[in-house]
User: Fold this.
Amino acid sequence: MIITIWWIRRDLRLADNQALWAALEHSSHVLPVFILDPVLLNSEYTGEKRLAFLFAGLGELHNDLQQKGSRLIIRSGVPDDILAELVAETGANAIYAEADHSPYARQRDLRIATKLPLHLVGSSAALQPGSVLKADGEPYTVFTSFSRAWKSMAESLPGAILSEPEMIPTPPEPVSEPLPTHYPQASGIPFKPGEREANSRLESFFSGGRSAPVYQYSEGRNQLDTDSTSKISPYLRFGMLSARQAASRAIRGMASAPDTQAYKSVETWLNEIIWREFYIHILYHYPSVRQRNFRMGEIRWQNDPQDFAAWKEGCTGYPVVDAAMRQLSETGWMHNRGRMIVASFLTKDLLVDWRWGERWFMQHLVDGDPASNNGGWQWTAGTGTDAAPYFRIFNPISQSTKFDPQGNYIRRWLPELVNVPNEYIHEPWKMPTNLQGGIGCQIGVNYPEPIIDHDWARHRVLNVYGNAKK
Assistant:
């Protein structure tokens, strides 16, 4: 009996899994293994809600494997040691895994490959880093050029998607550890885990003919007060849906779009997938972005602990900022427009280092991804690839007025403002004192005053960033 190990990391799925298929083609029996790595579990970037989603997803994967005549083996410990033990226990002659591209993952895999027969097949990206390069062999650092090259290479993706295996023969030994129970199972996560749910969400987004949500995406995607996005990012994060599947569905959706506007809307959604790809490639080629600015000199951050605490708690006095931060704390998710607003407020208004915000997001986001999170924060902070110009500073009031015009999003997450009239919902500190008392929302008592004047902060950050640019 020839046995191979399928080492699962960020690919909790059976369909379109190149590593799984490679393991099946190599041997008669496959052992699906997930390792609870203490380095990742105990990292300062790890979040409880993301762990809860992961563990629930592993349970779903185990159920799916059982229907294929298999099961999931859970082991805890240093991956090098666990894999060596499993090879010794089973006589496995190969280990197959999908390539991951974070600095830690790459160092880990290089180390293990020197000691064990580890084979990396496929990628957490639709197009593997190193495959999309300029004519001179250098990586792209501008999104538009990367996107153009990526699209020209991705045309064949719809025909490359792999089906689920009919059966996955697995030996009865070794035994599995139970999933850990000492991590709190976070409540309030608006995402049901598992591959089946991931595919259902994707298809629902593309279903409905001309009224399919994806065909309205370009118009509604920025609105905070509507449910206009696909919300598949947590599933991409853990590979419950492959990036190839998502990109392929978009390419097919563009081909069948009923009109030009619908086509452009699907293309806009595909561009979001390509941004994810771009940041994975950037992290692969420039791993130092996790620690320092991609562009721009050193910025003289203020890093006021009280300002940072107010931002984290959703108590800045700017309703749209606070609503987004409380949504994050309660659900582990935040609308992308909200992410840009709160990141700009932290880095530009409060002059707090983007790395502080990046870490906080990773500690709370269900879809927290090292590449995308870093890329998004550096873009907003004006320090990254294709960064927003340093003088682009989101105005939290105009952003709120434009993307939550009736204040529905604000009232959903800030119940203390539920009775504030529309004319004051974006700037409640302007309410007359008698009105504040009448509706039970006194500024400075029931809801905080703004912790900073935006116009003054804008002037300050322009000077600070201007000096850094010099």
In short: The chain has a mean pLDDT of 95. The chain has three domains: 3-124, 195-285, 305-469. The CA atoms of residues 314 and 322 lie 4 Å apart. The chain has 20 helices and five strands.
